[in-house]
Write a structure and sequence with these properties.
The chain has 262 residues and is mainly alpha-helical. It has one domain. The chain is 63% helix and 6% strand. The strands form 2 sheets. It has a 3-stranded mixed sheet with strand order 1-4-5, with no helix packed on it. It has a two-stranded antiparallel ribbon with strand order 2-3. α4 packs antiparallel against α5. The termini are far apart.
């Protein structure tokens, strides 16, 4: 059976000392696309667009710092405790989406406190952008031949030639398109009521859908953390459970709170 052989050069463009990688390009597109969605939301709800510039800085820093620390301490704690300076070597790769999510929440909390913005209102809107962000980041993982799937003989299996000659599930693409689907679902929900959307509901639905997809697709990924080798669940699955539970709690809370308000 013939399988797609993926052997793309990770460097998108290089001139002299300037080198742009596909991963960095797609990461930048992810940020800009999320910014455009947030700009549309702010315009729709007549919010101050000037506030978006500072919000972008807060969220980008929160996501990058959180994702890096999440990778270091969730997936390879032994290595990074022994080599703490390597935590700063972000160019060597290693970003965890769970840590990025926590970083974004903390950053949003600091931003909402400083600029007197409703925290839950902000998180609901950021959840929509984050789903789209996740689509581009997982696409970047595919381009970069990382976060590999398990060996498979399905017709759409991919051989990542830079890694080995094994046909594998393109788990990065499974996750990417799952996140894109969640983005469209959240956009539909938001468009129905816009500003009247119950606070916490979009974030709750986001957490439920995203981490259901993440938990399921993890079954088709190679384990990324050595300490989970003898455990039935992967690190990604274990980290997804509390987020999923938080999503259910948020949806129930938003429904009850909306009834009280009305």
């Amino acid at each position: 059976m013939q399988h797609l052989v993926w052997d793309l050069d990770p460097v998108f463009f290089s001139v002299g000392p300037l080198t742009i990688h596909w991963y960095g390009l797609l990461f930048a597109i992810a940020i800009l696309s999320g910014l455009q969605v947030m700009k549309w939301i702010f315009q729709t709800e007549k919010q101050d667009l000037a506030a978006l510039d500072n919000l972008l800085v807060y969220i980008v820093v929160g996501v990058i710092v959180g994702a890096r620390l999440g990778h270091c301490f969730f997936y390879e704690p032994g290595y990074y405790f022994a080599n703490p300076l390597k935590i700063f070597a972000i160019w060597e790769g290693g970003l965890a989406s769970h840590g990025g999510g926590l970083g974004a929440i903390i950053a949003a909390g600091l931003y909402s406190k400083k600029y007197q913005m409703n925290f839950m209102w902000l998180l609901d809107r950021l959840a929509i952008c984050t789903a789209l962000f996740g689509f581009f980041v997982r696409s970047a993982n595919f381009v970069n031949s990382e976060i590999l799937g398990t060996p498979s003989n399905v017709p759409w299996a991919v051989i990542f030639a830079r890694i080995d000659n094994v046909a594998r599930h393109p788990s990065q693409l499974y996750e990417a398109f799952a996140y894109l689907s969640v983005f469209f679902v959240l956009m539909f929900i938001y468009k129905v009521k816009k500003a009247q959307t119950p606070k916490g509901s979009i974030l709750g639905i986001f957490l439920i859908l995203i981490f259901t997809a993440r938990f399921t697709i993890e079954m088709l990924k190679e384990k990324q953390a050595a300490y989970t080798a003898d455990i039935a669940l992967t690190a990604g699955q274990m980290l997804s459970i509390p987020f999923f539970i938080a999503g259910i709690v948020l949806v129930i809370w938003s429904i009850k709170n909306n009834k009280k308000t009305n």
